[in-house]
Amino acid sequence: xxxxxxxxxxxxxxxxxCSKENEQGINLEGTWGIxxxxxxxxxxxxxxxEAEIKNGSAVTDFYFANDGKFKQTSNMSGSGTLDTYxxxxxxxxxxxxxxxxxxxxxxxVDYIYEMKNELLVLTRTSPDGKMSIVxxxxxx
Length: 140
Description:
Structural class: alpha+beta
Number of domains: 1
Low-confidence stretches: 1-23
Distance between the termini: 49 Å
CATH architecture: Beta Barrel
Largest sheet: 8 strands, antiparallel, barrel
Mean pLDDT: 81
Shape: globular
CATH topology: Lipocalin
Number of strands: 9
Radius of gyration: 18 Å
């Protein structure tokens, strides 16, 4: 009887967990490529390198693995090379938290995320609240 009760509790826990994920409709697993990069400032809105992103010469790809591992590949750091960073990712409410290892140090990069028409929209706002960067990705 105790075993049956334990199985029911575990099954109910899985049901609650899965139904929450389904309500959010979020499945980030796979590779996402950048399609838009926008700066929002008090002076207005500026799209950055829109033509380069569209023709594929400006690249940022995010890879989300189902085990929580993350990889970012990008040529938009200004170094002129294609750089790769690895780490982990997790979703909490409306935040995507990516932890990257840069020079051996873990660095958390927090985004507000939302899904719009099968696009992943990630927004970061400066600590003073005066500037935001909005990255939009499409699943490859």
